[in-house]
Design a protein that fits this description.
two-stranded antiparallel sheet, 16 helices, Growth Hormone, Chain: A, single chain, 2 domains, 2 strands, mainly alpha, 1% strand
């Protein structure tokens, strides 16, 4: 599926080949084994995304065991907001520093296993209000280090792909994440939370929150195990040396606070050399928040507006991940054939249309939600994957970590949009239909609006890049 060949880094518009560094000759060409090893990190990281932050641990923390649901949810929001701010401030710096010193894989390992330790420590969060802040701290800290790890993981995509296969590889990684989430959710849900036959695996009792707490140990082990292949199989990134032939040296060390000065200078340089990259970072921040909103509020809408039971919500969640994973892997092939921007545009248009259909056809009940909800999920993964490959094609050699750090920062800067619009449109629906009417489905329009604005911002972004390397190589789109 993935051919082994030498690869070259994309060059941003306006930069010259002499200004950018080629990959180190010591770096081996990407192979199928290394692509699989890279994708397995996404498979393993689903333990944090799907189990901890979406379906299990956050639901556990906001249960009545830790206090009033409204108050606890507000505290959860505060903790995650603080985590988001810290990621926004620190992600570009951590990425930049790993670029400069050639320690990308090292920091991927460090941040990944900090997340593993924090996940395992969630076992000690007993169902008592006195443990709430421990749980919130572990969740927020885990989110911060997970985002740091993701910056380095995303930056490694050019080490396991070529300009011709980067879309396919990106789609493979996203798809592995969805499939890994499905498998682990099935294991923990039917093994511990709602055990088949009434007896949990290993005889774990159903008291004192132990089914959820043991699930955290399983999630930690899952991530730790499947993170190993990328660390063992993919070579360490080597920072580009300064010009000077045999006497070339690595970029000098820069202090932590001085790194911000370097960052701002680099942003100005990036804006001069490739304003389209900056414009894309802004557009993607908006539509990626809309994409997050689809999954964040999908279960809420299923239960509150379409009458799904808690078990039916889990079944829909598994089906949604199956559809998203399959579509992401398949559309990755189209990314390489036609370019990332057409994939993103088509996905956003599909999301806007299907989301609008959910709103106007909501009286059709669960059938409507199953049909158009799964169509929504089919477009989410391809848009996420193509967004990563679009950016990867535009990054100058030696700046992958920094630019993907900016990618994380811009994404966090816009995370308020989908929740705010979801809430605003519910308020509009209540004003139109009366306070006693069930108008939660109006929130769909808020998410659709965020996606539509992101689509409008993306339209003028140009995607024609010049590729450094073989002069005969066609420009990557």
């Amino acid at each position: 599926m993935f051919t082994a060949c030498h690869y070259c880094f994309p060059m941003t518009v306006g930069a010259t080949a002499s200004e950018l560094s080629s990959p180190s000759p010591s770096d081996s060409a990407p192979t199928r084994g290394r692509v699989l090893a890279w994708g397995l990190w996404d498979w393993g990281s689903a333990s944090f995304n799907a189990v901890i932050t979406t379906f299990v641990f956050t639901v556990y923390l906001t249960s009545n065991a830790f206090g009033g649901e409204t108050a606890v949810s507000a505290q959860l929001g505060v903790a995650m907001t603080i985590a988001g701010v810290l990621v926004a401030l620190l992600a570009p710096i951590t990425g930049q520093r790993s670029d400069r010193r050639g320690r990308r894989k090292l920091w991927l390992a460090v941040n990944t296993y900090i997340v593993v330790v924090l996940s395992a420590a969630m076992f000690f969060v007993a169902p008592d209000p006195g443990y709430l802040w421990l749980g919130l701290f572990l969740l927020a800290a885990g989110t911060i280090f997970y985002e740091f790890a993701t910056v380095n993981y995303n930056a490694m995509i050019t080490q396991v792909s070529t300009p011709k296969t980067i879309g396919k590889v990106s789609g493979f990684g996203w798809g592995m994440g969805y499939v890994g989430g499905i498998v682990l959710l099935l294991i923990v849900y039917f093994g511990f939370i709602e055990p088949i036959g009434g007896t949990a695996l290993f005889g774990v009792p159903a008291t004192d929150g132990l089914p959820v707490r043991v699930t955290m140990l399983v999630a930690a082990a899952w991530f730790g195990l499947f993170a190993l292949p990328v660390l063992l199989r993919v070579p360490e990134y080597h920072a580009p040396a300064k010009p000077g032939g045999a006497d070339a040296v690595l970029a000098p060390r820069v202090g932590f606070f001085a790194s911000y000065g370097v960052l701002f200078r680099d942003i100005r340089t990036l804006y001069r050399e490739s304003r389209q990259t900056v414009y894309f970072l802004i557009a993607s921040a908006v539509f990626r928040d809309g994409l997050t909103g689809v999954f964040t509020f999908g279960g809420v809408l299923a239960a509150g507006s379409f009458g799904f039971s808690s078990g039916e919500v889990i079944i829909f969640a598994i089906a949604a991940n199956v559809v998203a994973g399959a579509s992401t892997m398949l559309v990755g092939l189209l990314d390489d054939r036609f370019g990332a921007k057409p994939v993103i545009m088509t996905s956003l248009i599909g999301l806007v249309i299907s989301g609008t259909a959910v709103f106007f056809l909501h009286d059709g009940g669960q059938t409507v939600f199953w049909i158009f909800g799964l169509i929504l999920c089919a477009f989410v993964g391809p848009a996420q994957s193509a967004s990563r490959s679009f950016l990867a094609r535009r990054i100058p050699a030696g700046r992958n970590g920094e630019i993907f750090g900016l990618y994380a920062t811009t994404g966090k800067a816009a995370t308020f949009l989908a929740p705010a619009m979801f809430t605003l449109f519910i308020g509009i629906g209540a004003a139109i239909n009366g306070p006693d009417a069930n108008v939660q489905y109006w929130g769909v329009l808020g998410i659709v609006l965020v996606l539509f604005v992101g689509l409008l911002l993306l339209i003028p972004v140009r995607s024609n890049d010049v590729v450094v390397g073989d002069p005969a190589e066609p420009a990557a789109k």
